[in-house]
């Protein structure tokens, strides 16, 4: 295989290098992203207050049950406005008669529509089960299979001053629906999440030269 | 007489041509004296300088390149020695020591004395001593400067470790107008070097197109070499970015090609190659995702599956879970729904030709692929410049999962939980550029056994157990030779072994195994500029062993009444021990281009079917007419024969007098490419199937004995319709296709008066799928299918069988009803994580996103007064991980 020796050559003036750097900088600027808090991978979780309304084909609509739920979320912002992630959530709620438990694994797509306000659409696997606390119905009622959801949240970054990524707090509101042939349930989640945003790698960020040309990997 | 120094007055005339030089001296003789004066007797002989002494050239004067002349007066005695030297005209350049040097040197002169009348006499002479430099020697050439390596590096593509050639690397110091630096370009191995960098910090920039920039700083120290490796990340790792698709010229009426890269991205198929084919036009939807290929209204047994031209019995584990050949081994699939070349035979339906990878790895690479079903590994590496090897394998762990889930005291006991594995070995060697020798070995093994603790009761008959095992192995040795011009030859020798075992309790079992060698040789050569010939031999042998005790296999057109029970009264038996049957075939096909726009492919194939002792002839013709650069008209017609199934001609199970059946294929269509990445293909087709093997209740006489006929060739089939395929090749981050088939498939057999619907007659088959590449190595894809429901024979009533104490269904006209239409949306998400030396891909495949309930058949209550629909799994999510290096 041909192996050529490359000899450096001194550029006639620094202007050529400056020009090359300027062109490179311009090209970089066209494809690189300015640092922001809401960038890169995210990992978060939170607590929610939950209201559940279930309907059974034979027993009719159950009274609303109230409780709490927990969720763990992980994902990535693909662009400044589009993100994809996974959520694992579970919780419980109860009314005067029914005790419900639910859980699910959802694929979450989010659209950052305005500043840090994001709309979410979710689909995945889930299950809802309800037991009669009064014992009038011996067997548990429930359904399992598809689970759908939609939500809205706003990310606050109180500690963020510069750079890419950071810690955020997100109040959110979500609706979920678990269909079934004989039982289905709808839920509303209101909660508060904590997130850590990893940020983008330095190679993807539009940075001043003093920050760009360092040995660091992160921006 | 006084001796006196005679002054000759030589000052003006006497030229002592002695010259002192810095390095050399070249004395010259004094010139003759003028006439004598009155100072004494006449000089008869002049003094002669016999020993010249060179003066030392004053160093300072030599360095300053100063020359001088010093005029001396020398007293020469009668012996010729020098008594005294006096400077009478000093050097013009004073202070350099010329006078002193000349005086000192002259004082050492030796002369032959002057003579007057033959007598030596003392004289005084004037002497001009000159100091002259020789031409300065050319300055010595400075020793050539040897560049000193300061900074060297290697550019590798992150994740794949491929060297980055031709990338510009810039090092610089300072900022703005004061920036100064150097640049170089990486070589074919990704290496770059910088020489003679001054010590200090240098900023490094490498920004190749299509990659994220490398921006860093390195510190260069005097006398040290900085060595680095930069892993440069691509902006996108979509496999389509590196696909250089050299399109094979199309000769067939319809050939659909699906590449490995597309296979791995199509939603709802879990990356399974064969499942992808079901998304193409002309392929019907099969219930429960089984591996059956139903092509243009043909039975699954009418479509053959080849792997690199070699017949294989099946390609799915357990009938449809996973293909026995992993995607990592595949190059592409070719699918022919009809009108295929004489190269393929023994089929009336379609052909799926799976092409394995041609091993040409540039470096060692491989992957591990894990999903909830199984884990597979694959590894390949070059062996020098001319050879390569690859191995792979996969094993399921359904058995582990099921043994954890199924309770030990439940209604069933898993004596052998379902498990499958497959393995592959590939090796290739290219001794010369025009030939290649390759060996491929692959095999598959499935096993499953359960015992019913409370035997299942299917309409009154107990099934105590189910035990199945299927295995096949294939070894293919190939030799490809490329001679001058377009002459090629490909020789393949295949050795194969298949075994199938199915046990359903005492007296109900199927045990069969086949040893199946196959020899194929195909030669292609040009007869003239516009005429290419292809001739070939295809010889398939079976050495079969059977031991079967079972009811007859289900036939197309059977109703629930036919398949309702394992009634012992319907059991047939047969036993064959090492029976050899031979299927030799030969074919010839011409490719004739009478004018550049028209291609004609006439051909003929001759087959001999040993077990029915029948020779068949299949003439075929395909034509393509290129109307313009973007539009082609195409058409084809041909005859396609197929032998009956082994059980249909077996003495114990079938009718040895059954003949081969055959079909006319006709198709006419057009291809148009409105854009470089968009292809539209529409084809109308008609298939006329004759002498179809169908069930018979008749009694015939054979050997003077009345025997049930069981099968005859009274069947007939016809299929007609059209295909549409709009295909978007990978461009602008998207690939996908829209496939639609409108068709009608009918059969006529001994049980029906006239034509009726085929079991898999699906009037509309619509598939829309696509995959889009997102930033950060995400890809999302979707597939939506709409398929007309399959026909079924309705149950219109029931009657009580008092002897068996069960109800028997009363059925209506065969296939006169239709199941509800099937439609489903599948999604797939892929994410690739890129590391320096490897990559990790994760995917999530969601089937039936909106949870549509499907009815693939009916289940009835005890007296057939009620039915409920049964279907495949509704919402299903599968995760998978793949690590590759």
Overall description:
The complex is a heterodimer of chains A (219) and B (885). Chain A has 2 helices and 9 strands, in the order αβββββββββα. Chain A is mostly beta strands. Chain A has a single domain, classed as Porin (Beta Barrel), CATH 2.40.160. An 8-stranded antiparallel β-barrel of chain A has the order 1-3-4-5-6-7-8-9. The N terminus of chain A is likely disordered. Chain B is mainly beta. Chain B folds into 3 domains: 126 residues, 2-Layer Sandwich (TolA/TonB C-terminal domain); 84 residues, Carboxypeptidase-like, regulatory domain (Immunoglobulin-like), CATH 2.60.40.1120; 496 residues, Maltoporin, Chain A (Beta Barrel). Chain B is built from 6 helices and 53 strands. Chain B has a 24-stranded antiparallel sheet that branches. In chain B, strands 1, 2, 4, 5 and 9 form a 5-stranded mixed sheet that branches. In chain B, strand 7 and strand 8 form a beta hairpin.
Protein topology:
The complex is a heterodimer of chains A (219) and B (885).
Chain A: H1 14-31, E1 41-56, E2 60-61, E3 65-77, E4 82-94, E5 98-114, E6 117-132, E7 141-154, E8 166-178, E9 183-199, H2 209-212
Antiparallel strand pairs in A: 1-2, 1-3, 1-9, 3-4, 4-5, 5-6, 6-7, 7-8, 8-9
Chain B: E1 6-7, E2 18-20, E3 48-51, H1 59-63, E4 68-76, E5 82-89, H2 98-106, E6 110-112, E7 114-116, E8 119-121, E9 123-131, E10 149-157, E11 168-173, E12 180-185, E13 191-195, E14 200-206, E15 214-220, E16 226-232, E17 256-259, H3 260-263, H4 273-277, E18 304-307, E19 310-311, E20 316-317, E21 322-323, E22 330-336, E23 351-356, E24 365-371, E25 374-383, E26 387-396, H5 398-405, E27 412-432, E28 435-458, E29 461-482, E30 488-503, E31 509-515, E32 518-528, E33 531-551, E34 571-595, E35 598-609, E36 614-626, E37 631-642, H6 646-649, E38 661-675, E39 678-702, E40 705-731, E41 734-748, E42 756-757, E43 764-774, E44 778-787, E45 791-792, E46 795-801, E47 806-811, E48 817-818, E49 822-834, E50 839-847, E51 857-860, E52 867-870, E53 876-884
Parallel strand pairs in B: 1-9, 2-9, 10-16, 18-23
Antiparallel strand pairs in B: 3-6, 4-5, 4-9, 7-8, 10-13, 11-12, 11-14, 14-15, 17-22, 18-19, 20-21, 22-23, 24-25, 24-53, 25-26, 26-27, 27-28, 28-29, 29-30, 30-31, 30-32, 31-33, 32-33, 33-34, 34-35, 35-36, 36-37, 37-38, 38-39, 39-40, 40-41, 41-42, 41-43, 43-44, 44-49, 45-48, 46-47, 49-50, 50-53, 51-52
């Amino acid at each position: 295989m041909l192996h050529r020796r490359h000899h450096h050559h001194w550029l006639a003036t620094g202007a050529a290098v400056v020009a090359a750097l300027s062109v490179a900088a311009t090209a970089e600027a066209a494809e690189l992203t300015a640092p922001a808090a809401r960038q890169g991978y995210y990992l978060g979780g939170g607590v929610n207050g939950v209201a559940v309304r279930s309907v059974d084909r034979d027993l009719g609509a159950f009274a609303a049950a109230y409780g709490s739920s927990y969720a763990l979320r992980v994902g990535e912002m693909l662009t400044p406005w589009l993100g994809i992630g996974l959520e694992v959530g579970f919780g419980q709620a109860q009314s005067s008669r029914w005790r419900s438990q639910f859980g699910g694994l959802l694929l979450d797509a989010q659209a950052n529509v305005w500043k840090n306000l994001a709309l979410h659409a979710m689909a995945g696997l889930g299950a809802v089960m309800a037991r009669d606390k009064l014992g009038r119905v011996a067997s548990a009622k429930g359904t399992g299979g598809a689970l759908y959801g939609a939500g809205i949240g706003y990310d606050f970054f109180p500690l963020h001053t510069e750079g890419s990524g950071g810690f955020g707090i997100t109040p959110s509101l979500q609706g979920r629906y678990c269909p079934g042939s004989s039982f289905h349930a709808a839920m509303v989640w209101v909660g508060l999440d904590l997130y850590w945003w990893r940020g983008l790698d330095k190679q993807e960020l539009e940075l001043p030269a003093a920050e760009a040309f360092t040995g660091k990997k992160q921006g | 007489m006084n001796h006196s120094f005679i002054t000759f007055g030589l000052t003006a005339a006497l030229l002592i041509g002695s010259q002192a030089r810095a390095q050399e001296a070249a004395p010259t003789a004094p010139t003759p004296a003028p006439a004598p004066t009155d100072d004494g007797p006449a000089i008869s002989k002049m003094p002669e300088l016999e020993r010249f002494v060179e003066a030392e050239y004053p160093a300072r004067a030599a360095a300053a390149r100063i020359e001088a002349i010093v005029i001396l007066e020398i007293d020469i005695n009668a012996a010729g020695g020098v008594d005294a030297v006096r400077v009478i005209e000093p050097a013009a350049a004073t202070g350099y020591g010329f006078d002193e040097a000349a005086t000192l040197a002259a004082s050492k002169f030796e002369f032959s004395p002057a003579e007057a009348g033959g007598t030596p006499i003392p004289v005084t002479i004037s002497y001009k001593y000159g100091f002259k430099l020789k031409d300065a020697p050319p300055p010595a050439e400075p020793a050539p400067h040897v560049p000193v390596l300061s900074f060297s590096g290697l550019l590798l593509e992150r994740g794949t470790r491929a060297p980055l050639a031709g990338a510009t690397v810039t090092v610089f110091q300072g900022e703005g107008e004061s920036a100064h630096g150097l640049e170089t370009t990486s070589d074919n191995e990704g290496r770059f070097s910088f020489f003679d960098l001054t010590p200090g910090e240098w900023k490094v920039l490498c920004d190749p197109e299509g990659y994220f920039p490398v921006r860093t700083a390195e510190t260069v120290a005097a006398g040290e070499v900085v060595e680095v490796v930069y892993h440069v990340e691509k902006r996108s790792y979509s496999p389509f970015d590196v696909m250089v698709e050299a399109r094979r010229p199309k000769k067939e009426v319809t050939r659909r090609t699906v590449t490995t890269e597309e296979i791995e991205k199509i939603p709802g198929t879990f990356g399974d190659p064969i499942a992808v084919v079901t998304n193409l036009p002309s392929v019907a939807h099969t219930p429960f995702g089984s591996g059956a290929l139903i092509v243009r209204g043909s039975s699954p047994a009418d479509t053959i599956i080849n792997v690199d031209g070699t017949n294989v019995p099946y390609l799915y584990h357990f009938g449809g879970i996973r293909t026995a050949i992993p995607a990592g081994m595949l190059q592409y699939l070719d699918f022919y729904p009809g009108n295929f070349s004489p190269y393929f035979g023994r089929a009336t339906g379609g052909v799926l030709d799976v092409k394995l990878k041609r091993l040409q790895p540039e470096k060692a690479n491989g992957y591990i692929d894990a999903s909830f079903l199984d884990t597979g590994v694959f590894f390949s590496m070059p062996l020098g410049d001319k050879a390569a090897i690859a191995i792979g394998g996969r094993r399921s762990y359904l058995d582990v999962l099921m043994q954890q889930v199924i309770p030990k005291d439940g209604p069933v006991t898993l004596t052998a939980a379902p498990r499958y594995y497959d393995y592959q070995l590939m090796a290739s060697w290219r001794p010369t550029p025009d030939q290649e020798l390759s060996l491929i070995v692959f095999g598959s093994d499935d096993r499953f056994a359960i015992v019913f603790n409370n035997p299942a009761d299917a309409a009154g008959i107990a099934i105590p157990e189910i035990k199945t095992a299927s295995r096949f192995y294939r070894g293919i040795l190939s030799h490809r030779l490329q001679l001058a011009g377009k002459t090629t030859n490909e020789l393949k020798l295949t050795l194969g072994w298949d075994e199938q075992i199915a046990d359903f309790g005492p007296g109900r079992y199927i045990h069969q195994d086949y040893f199946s060698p196959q020899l194929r040789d195909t030669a292609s050569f040009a007869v003239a500029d516009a005429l290419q010939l292809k001739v070939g031999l295809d010889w398939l042998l079976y050495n079969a062993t059977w031991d079967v005790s079972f009811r007859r296999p289900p036939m197309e057109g059977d109703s629930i009444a036919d398949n309702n029970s394992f009634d012992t009264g319907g059991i047939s038996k047969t036993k064959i021990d090492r029976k050899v049957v031979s299927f030799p075939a030969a074919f010839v096909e011409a490719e004739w281009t009478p004018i550049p726009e028209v291609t004609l492919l006439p051909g003929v194939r001759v087959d001999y079917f040993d077990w029915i002792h029948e020779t068949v002839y299949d003439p075929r013709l395909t034509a393509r007419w290129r109307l313009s650069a973007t539009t082609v008209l195409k058409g084809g017609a041909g005859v396609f024969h197929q032998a009956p199934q082994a059980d249909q001609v077996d003495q114990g199970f079938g009718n040895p007098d059954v003949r081969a059946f055959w079909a006319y294929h006709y198709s006419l269509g057009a291809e148009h490419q409105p854009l470089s990445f968009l292809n539209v293909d529409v084809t109308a087709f008609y298939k006329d199937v004759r002498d179809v093997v169908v069930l018979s209740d008749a009694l015939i006489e054979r050997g003077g004995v009345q025997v049930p006929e069981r099968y005859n060739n009274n069947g007939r089939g016809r299929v007609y319709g059209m295909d549409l395929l709009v295909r978007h090749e990978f461009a602008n981050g998207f690939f996908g296709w829209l496939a639609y088939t409108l068709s009608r498939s009918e059969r006529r057999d001994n049980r029906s008066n006239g034509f009726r619907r085929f079991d898999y007659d699906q009037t509309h088959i619509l598939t829309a799928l696509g995959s889009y590449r997102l930033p950060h190595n995400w890809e999302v894809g979707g597939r939506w299918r709409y398929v007309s429901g399959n026909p079924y024979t309705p149950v219109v009533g029931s009657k009580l069988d008092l002897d068996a104490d069960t109800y028997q269904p009363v059925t209506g006209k065969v296939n006169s009803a239709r199941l509800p239409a099937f439609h489903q949306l599948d999604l797939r998400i892929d994410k690739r994580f890129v590391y320096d030396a490897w990559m990790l891909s994760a995917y999530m495949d969601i089937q039936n996103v909106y949870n549509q309930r499907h009815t693939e058949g009916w289940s009835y209550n005890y007296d057939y007064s009620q039915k409920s629909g049964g279907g495949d799994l509704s919402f299903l999510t599968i995760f998978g991980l793949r690590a590759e290096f």
